[in-house]
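Hi support team,

I submitted a single chain yesterday and got back a structure, but I'm not sure I'm reading the C-alpha coordinate output correctly. Could someone confirm the output below corresponds to the sequence I sent? I've pasted both exactly as they appear in my results page.

Thanks,
R.
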Amino acid sequence: MNDFQDGEILRFCKRPGSEAFEEGFKMLYSKYKDLVYRVCYRVAGNSADAMDAAQDAFIQVYKNLSGFQGNSKFSSWLYRVAVNCAVDICRKRKRNEAVFVDIEGSQEFFDSNALLPNEGRKPDLGSESEFLEMISGLSPKLRLVTILRYLEGLTYSEIAEALQVAVGTVKSRLSRAHLAIGANLKAKARMDNEK
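Hi R., thanks for writing in. Yes, this is the structure output for that exact sequence:
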Protein backbone atom coordinates (compact mmCIF):
# COMPACT_ATOMS: atom_id res chain seq x y z
CA MET A 1 0.00 0.00 0.00
CA ASN A 2 2.84 2.43 0.83
CA ASP A 3 4.43 1.71 -2.56
CA PHE A 4 2.26 4.40 -4.16
CA GLN A 5 3.67 7.91 -4.54
CA ASP A 6 1.67 10.80 -3.05
CA GLY A 7 0.64 12.06 -6.49
CA GLU A 8 -0.84 8.69 -7.39
CA ILE A 9 -2.70 8.47 -4.10
CA LEU A 10 -4.01 12.03 -4.41
CA ARG A 11 -5.53 11.18 -7.80
CA PHE A 12 -7.78 8.74 -5.93
CA CYS A 13 -8.90 11.56 -3.65
CA LYS A 14 -10.66 13.87 -6.10
CA ARG A 15 -14.24 12.77 -5.36
CA PRO A 16 -15.15 12.83 -1.64
CA GLY A 17 -17.43 9.99 -0.63
CA SER A 18 -16.29 7.67 -3.40
CA GLU A 19 -14.63 4.34 -2.67
CA ALA A 20 -11.47 5.61 -4.38
CA PHE A 21 -11.40 8.63 -2.04
CA GLU A 22 -11.78 6.43 1.03
CA GLU A 23 -9.04 4.07 -0.15
CA GLY A 24 -6.71 6.97 -1.00
CA PHE A 25 -7.28 8.56 2.39
CA LYS A 26 -6.53 5.25 4.13
CA MET A 27 -3.26 5.05 2.19
CA LEU A 28 -2.27 8.60 3.17
CA TYR A 29 -3.23 7.96 6.78
CA SER A 30 -1.19 4.77 6.89
CA LYS A 31 1.80 6.48 5.30
CA TYR A 32 1.77 9.66 7.40
CA LYS A 33 0.11 8.87 10.75
CA ASP A 34 3.38 8.51 12.63
CA LEU A 35 4.90 11.65 11.14
CA VAL A 36 1.80 13.67 12.08
CA TYR A 37 1.81 12.26 15.61
CA ARG A 38 5.54 12.96 16.01
CA VAL A 39 5.16 16.58 14.89
CA CYS A 40 2.13 17.09 17.13
CA TYR A 41 3.94 15.52 20.08
CA ARG A 42 6.97 17.73 19.65
CA VAL A 43 4.85 20.86 19.40
CA ALA A 44 2.33 19.98 22.14
CA GLY A 45 4.77 18.30 24.50
CA ASN A 46 2.62 15.41 25.71
CA SER A 47 0.92 12.38 24.22
CA ALA A 48 -2.67 13.29 25.18
CA ASP A 49 -2.51 16.64 23.37
CA ALA A 50 -0.53 15.10 20.52
CA MET A 51 -3.17 12.42 19.96
CA ASP A 52 -5.93 15.07 19.99
CA ALA A 53 -3.98 17.27 17.58
CA ALA A 54 -3.14 14.34 15.26
CA GLN A 55 -6.80 13.34 15.18
CA ASP A 56 -7.81 16.94 14.42
CA ALA A 57 -5.17 17.09 11.69
CA PHE A 58 -6.52 14.01 9.93
CA ILE A 59 -10.07 15.30 10.24
CA GLN A 60 -8.92 18.51 8.53
CA VAL A 61 -7.09 16.55 5.86
CA TYR A 62 -10.15 14.37 5.25
CA LYS A 63 -12.41 17.41 4.92
CA ASN A 64 -10.04 19.38 2.68
CA LEU A 65 -8.20 16.70 0.71
CA SER A 66 -10.27 16.97 -2.45
CA GLY A 67 -9.45 20.69 -2.56
CA PHE A 68 -5.68 20.17 -2.29
CA GLN A 69 -4.36 21.85 -5.43
CA GLY A 70 -0.84 20.47 -5.41
CA ASN A 71 0.79 23.92 -5.40
CA SER A 72 3.11 22.58 -2.73
CA LYS A 73 4.26 19.10 -1.79
CA PHE A 74 1.59 17.13 0.01
CA SER A 75 3.95 16.55 2.94
CA SER A 76 4.49 20.32 3.33
CA TRP A 77 0.73 20.88 3.38
CA LEU A 78 0.35 18.06 5.90
CA TYR A 79 3.08 19.53 8.15
CA ARG A 80 1.23 22.86 8.09
CA VAL A 81 -2.08 21.20 9.03
CA ALA A 82 -0.45 19.16 11.83
CA VAL A 83 1.45 22.14 13.24
CA ASN A 84 -1.66 24.33 13.18
CA CYS A 85 -3.72 21.67 14.97
CA ALA A 86 -1.02 21.17 17.63
CA VAL A 87 -0.70 24.92 18.18
CA ASP A 88 -4.49 25.20 18.47
CA ILE A 89 -4.54 22.44 21.09
CA CYS A 90 -1.81 24.26 23.05
CA ARG A 91 -3.75 27.52 22.89
CA LYS A 92 -6.92 25.82 24.12
CA ARG A 93 -5.00 24.14 26.92
CA LYS A 94 -3.45 27.43 27.97
CA ARG A 95 -6.75 29.28 27.73
CA ASN A 96 -8.61 26.64 29.75
CA GLU A 97 -5.66 26.07 32.10
CA ALA A 98 -6.46 22.39 31.94
CA VAL A 99 -4.03 19.79 33.15
CA PHE A 100 -3.54 16.77 30.94
CA VAL A 101 -2.07 13.54 32.22
CA ASP A 102 0.30 11.69 29.91
CA ILE A 103 -1.29 8.26 30.26
CA GLU A 104 1.07 5.35 29.75
CA GLY A 105 0.18 3.34 26.68
CA SER A 106 -1.90 6.09 25.07
CA GLN A 107 0.06 5.71 21.82
CA GLU A 108 -1.73 2.49 20.89
CA PHE A 109 -2.80 3.78 17.46
CA PHE A 110 0.70 4.94 16.56
CA ASP A 111 3.99 3.18 16.01
CA SER A 112 6.08 3.24 19.18
CA ASN A 113 9.04 4.45 17.09
CA ALA A 114 7.08 7.47 15.83
CA LEU A 115 9.12 9.81 18.00
CA LEU A 116 12.41 8.76 16.46
CA PRO A 117 14.08 11.21 14.08
CA ASN A 118 13.66 10.80 10.34
CA GLU A 119 17.12 9.27 9.91
CA GLY A 120 15.79 6.05 11.42
CA ARG A 121 18.66 5.65 13.88
CA LYS A 122 17.84 5.31 17.53
CA PRO A 123 18.60 8.63 19.20
CA ASP A 124 19.86 9.21 22.70
CA LEU A 125 16.37 9.79 24.09
CA GLY A 126 17.76 11.89 26.89
CA SER A 127 19.27 14.28 24.37
CA GLU A 128 15.92 14.83 22.63
CA SER A 129 14.13 15.53 25.88
CA GLU A 130 16.99 17.82 26.93
CA PHE A 131 16.67 19.58 23.59
CA LEU A 132 12.91 19.98 24.01
CA GLU A 133 13.44 21.29 27.53
CA MET A 134 16.10 23.69 26.24
CA ILE A 135 13.74 25.18 23.64
CA SER A 136 10.64 25.15 25.86
CA GLY A 137 11.22 28.78 26.87
CA LEU A 138 11.34 30.01 23.27
CA SER A 139 8.38 31.76 21.72
CA PRO A 140 6.09 29.41 19.77
CA LYS A 141 7.37 30.70 16.41
CA LEU A 142 11.02 30.16 17.33
CA ARG A 143 10.33 26.79 18.97
CA LEU A 144 8.40 25.62 15.91
CA VAL A 145 11.14 26.37 13.35
CA THR A 146 13.70 24.81 15.68
CA ILE A 147 11.65 21.60 15.98
CA LEU A 148 11.07 21.37 12.24
CA ARG A 149 14.73 22.00 11.46
CA TYR A 150 16.53 19.92 14.05
CA LEU A 151 14.07 17.20 15.06
CA GLU A 152 12.19 16.73 11.79
CA GLY A 153 15.21 17.45 9.57
CA LEU A 154 13.39 19.76 7.17
CA THR A 155 15.36 22.14 4.95
CA TYR A 156 14.84 25.90 5.16
CA SER A 157 12.73 25.73 2.01
CA GLU A 158 10.57 22.92 3.36
CA ILE A 159 10.02 24.78 6.63
CA ALA A 160 9.10 27.94 4.73
CA GLU A 161 6.64 26.00 2.61
CA ALA A 162 5.11 24.21 5.61
CA LEU A 163 4.70 27.43 7.61
CA GLN A 164 3.87 29.62 4.60
CA VAL A 165 6.61 32.12 5.35
CA ALA A 166 9.64 33.30 3.40
CA VAL A 167 12.93 31.39 3.63
CA GLY A 168 14.49 34.56 5.05
CA THR A 169 11.93 34.49 7.86
CA VAL A 170 12.88 30.89 8.66
CA LYS A 171 16.57 31.83 8.76
CA SER A 172 15.86 34.86 10.93
CA ARG A 173 13.77 32.86 13.40
CA LEU A 174 16.42 30.15 13.61
CA SER A 175 19.09 32.75 14.19
CA ARG A 176 17.06 34.32 17.02
CA ALA A 177 16.43 30.84 18.45
CA HIS A 178 20.17 30.08 18.39
CA LEU A 179 20.93 33.32 20.24
CA ALA A 180 18.26 32.63 22.87
CA ILE A 181 19.42 29.04 23.36
CA GLY A 182 23.03 30.19 23.65
CA ALA A 183 22.09 32.77 26.28
CA ASN A 184 20.10 30.15 28.21
CA LEU A 185 23.02 27.70 28.11
CA LYS A 186 25.45 30.35 29.35
CA ALA A 187 23.11 31.29 32.19
CA LYS A 188 22.67 27.63 33.13
CA ALA A 189 26.45 27.07 33.06
CA ARG A 190 26.96 30.09 35.36
CA MET A 191 24.34 28.76 37.77
CA ASP A 192 25.94 25.29 37.73
CA ASN A 193 29.39 26.81 38.43
CA GLU A 194 28.03 28.82 41.36
CA LYS A 195 26.75 25.66 43.09
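A quick pointer for reading it: The chain has two domains: 1-114, 121-195. Let us know if anything else looks off.

Best,
Support desk
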